[in-house]
Design the sequence.
């Protein structure tokens, strides 16, 4: 009994060949795989700030993009703020959802599975007693995160479950959230 | 000194199988064994260990198991006796108590330095096994002093460990077997689970080993696999040489606490990954895919009416709120067992045959140096390469290669 690789053609818009080429390149030249992602953030007013994302380091040198991306963050009116953007924690939740969704699309492309619709709802539970300093035993962050995927694809339930499982296995944001990461904050 | 045609280092199943091949082909050779036949089995296994492959799977070429319990699981002592008898039957040229301390290339031969003087040979077979050293992550150095640490290679019995809680890191074959035994001794076990391979002991009336063999999965060769590196790192199945349940449901039924992969140790706290649910879901999915492929094989062979019906195994339970951290300083954990894998030891090989990650460079067991071969590594040449029942076919292949190498040299 042999293990068959999928040769079905799916078009989810993911350039899998480029990903596989990148994998091969990094195997022979590990230095090329060393990336540093970067965002710059500027305070606007109150609890509103604007992050701009432009360049990054990778493939051995500083890289630029064609355009500058920007994300505003704020807090909602219920927090006596101006609601000029989502909260930082909501940006993190959307980061997780986006990373997993990109993963589902990439894995589906690689496995020859045609996707028709992929939607994810993500929720993070938080007890404000943490960030408000009311209770030292309550953590600042999420006590639980739930992601629910709604996927319509040319695949069995098990195949779809396997896409979602593999996506988590290779997700950067999933790893960032589920495992400890060193963060060093300095003042210039 | 005239070089021997071949030296084999190690008199375990691989070394013995290769010796029989070489004797059968008239190749003059010597087996250098640092202890006695089946040394690793004798000296580096825990007391209660029974082989997790059924008896019928533990024969050697020309000497299949013919004992009274083909479907039983033999203790290590019985395996050692069988290997000793086999070595005698095939008249294996073993030199005991001989440790190879260094190997260099000299001219067109290999010079082996041993505690009984140097040996020169034209071809060399490394049959020292895949489990010489435990693989322990660097975070071991962050375990607070005062905790007892051990590995499956050093562990012998529960009473070796202090009373109190035990953190077992790793839930593959060794980890789950030790978890069951240690928890049953009254030492509460917390089991840190990352990537793992769930397997049922039996399916549709046959042992899982029988299916892996019959369906040809064991015989898949290294050149038929897309991602060989990944296949070679597949965690060993959560199996035990008995009918005790050692999958995560079985262990949780005993009261063992299952937590995520040990991610870090900080300020005396063990931190576990929050990805346990996915590790568990992934293992269940993979097991079910394997069982489906067995079902398909049964149909393809026209055996559907003869076999018992397909079974569906209960999903692995995930704790409602998996624990993310555990204090290593409050006295509730007294021991850490690193069941985090093994690696072969080729540090005595002074040859340019290692890749940038320190792994031996070989092609299906043919090492990247003239006349040098390796056996017994995971998926070295076939999926079954590391198992006792894998030694024979690999030995036949590599012996053929070795003999044509010798013939070319002598003809030149």
Sequence:
């Amino acid at each position: 009994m042999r293990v068959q690789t999928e040769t079905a053609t799916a078009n989810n818009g993911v350039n899998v060949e480029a990903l596989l080429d990148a994998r091969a390149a990094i195997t022979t030249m590990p230095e090329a795989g060393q990336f540093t992602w970067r965002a710059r953030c500027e305070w606007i007013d109150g609890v509103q700030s604007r992050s701009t994302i432009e360049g990054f380091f990778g493939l051995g040198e500083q890289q630029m993009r064609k355009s500058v991306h920007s994300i505003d963050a704020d807090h909602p009116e219920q927090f006596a703020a101006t609601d000029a953007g989502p909260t930082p924690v909501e940006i993190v939740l959307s980061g997780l959802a986006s990373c997993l969704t990109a993963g589902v699309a990439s894995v589906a492309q690689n496995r020859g599975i045609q996707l028709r619709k992929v939607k994810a709802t993500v929720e993070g539970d938080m007890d404000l007693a943490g960030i408000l300093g009311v209770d030292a035993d309550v953590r600042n962050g999420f006590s639980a995160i739930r992601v629910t995927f709604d996927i319509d694809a040319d695949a069995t339930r098990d195949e779809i479950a396997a896409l979602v499982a593999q996506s988590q296995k290779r997700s950067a944001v999933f790893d960032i959230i589920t495992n400890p990461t060193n963060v060093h904050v300095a003042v210039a | 000194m005239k070089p021997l045609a071949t030296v084999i280092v190690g008199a375990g199943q691989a070394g013995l199988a290769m010796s029989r091949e070489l004797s059968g082909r008239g190749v003059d050779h010597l087996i250098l064994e640092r202890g006695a036949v089946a040394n690793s089995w004798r000296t580096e296994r825990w007391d209660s260990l029974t082989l997790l492959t059924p008896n019928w799977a533990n024969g050697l070429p020309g000497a299949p198991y013919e004992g009274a319990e083909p479907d039983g699981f033999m203790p290590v002592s019985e395996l050692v006796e069988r290997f000793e008898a086999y070595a005698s039957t095939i008249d294996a040229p073993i030199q005991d108590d001989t440790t190879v301390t260094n190997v260099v290339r000299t001219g067109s031969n290999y010079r082996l330095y041993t505690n009984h003087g140097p040996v020169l040979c034209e071809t060399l077979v490394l049959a020292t096994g895949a489990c010489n050293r435990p693989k322990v992550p660097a975070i071991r150095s962050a375990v607070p002093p005062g905790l007892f640490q051990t590995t499956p290679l050093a562990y012998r019995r529960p009473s070796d460990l202090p009373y109190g809680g035990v953190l077992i890191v790793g839930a593959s074959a060794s980890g789950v077997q030790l978890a069951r035994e240690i928890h049953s001794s009254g030492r509460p076990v917390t089991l840190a689970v990352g990537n793992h391979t769930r397997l049922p002991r039996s399916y549709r009336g046959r042992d899982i080993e029988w299916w892996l063999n019959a369906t040809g999965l064991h015989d898949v060769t290294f050149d038929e696999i897309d991602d060989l590196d990944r296949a070679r790192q597949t965690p060993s199945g959560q199996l035990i040489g008995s009918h005790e349940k050692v999958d995560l449901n079985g262990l949780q039924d005993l009261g063992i606490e299952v937590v995520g992969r040990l991610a870090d140790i900080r300020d005396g706290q063990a931190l576990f990954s929050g990805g346990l649910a996915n590790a568990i879901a992934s293992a269940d999915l993979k097991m079910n895919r394997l069982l489906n492929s067995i079902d398909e094989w049964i149909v393809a062979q026209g055996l559907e009416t003869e076999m018992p019906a397909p079974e569906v195994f209960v999903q692995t339970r995930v704790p409602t709120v998996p624990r993310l951290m555990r204090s290593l300083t409050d006295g509730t954990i007294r021991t850490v067992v690193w069941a985090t894998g093994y690696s072969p030891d080729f540090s005595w090989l002074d040859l340019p045959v290692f890749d940038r990650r320190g792994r031996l460079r070989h092609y299906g067991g043919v090492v990247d140096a003239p006349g040098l071969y390796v056996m017994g590594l995971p998926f070295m040449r076939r999926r079954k390469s590391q198992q006792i029942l894998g030694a024979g076919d690999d030995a036949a292949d590599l012996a053929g290669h070795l003999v044509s190498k010798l013939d070319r040299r002598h003809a030149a």
Summary: Chain A has a mean pLDDT of 94. Residues 87-179 of chain A form a domain with the GMP Synthetase; Chain A, domain 3 fold (CATH 3.30.300.20).
